[in-house]
Amino acid sequence: MTQFLPPNLLALFAARDPIPYLPPAAKLPHEKKQKGYDGVGAFLDVFEICMIFNKDNNKPRGYAFIEYEHERDMHCKCYTEL
């Protein structure tokens, strides 16, 4: 059936040279050293921080609950740029 196609359409299906493999410039994400959570105390006057952890592997799930001493502290900290 391809014998009836014009040359410009046949060129779409022609084999091309393989893409050369280049190793990544930086380390892979699992090879990088993870930074801990720090700097929260400088910005917050909090009563309690409750981080949520995965029960299986005890790693943080990526969110936390923050309880302030006063409601005005919460509103003040929400609109402060870091």
TrEMBL record:
A Gene Ontology molecular function term of the record: nucleic acid binding
Domain of life: Eukaryota
Gene3D superfamilies: 3.30.70.330
UniProt-listed SUPFAM superfamilies: RNA-binding domain, RBD
InterPro entries per record: Nucleotide-bd_a/b_plait_sf, RBD_domain_sf, U1snRNP70_N
Residue ranges of domain U1 small nuclear ribonucleoprotein of 70kDa N-terminal in the record: 3-72
A Pfam match: U1snRNP70_N
Entry protein name: U1 small nuclear ribonucleoprotein of 70kDa N-terminal domain-containing protein
Species of origin: Spodoptera exigua (Beet armyworm)
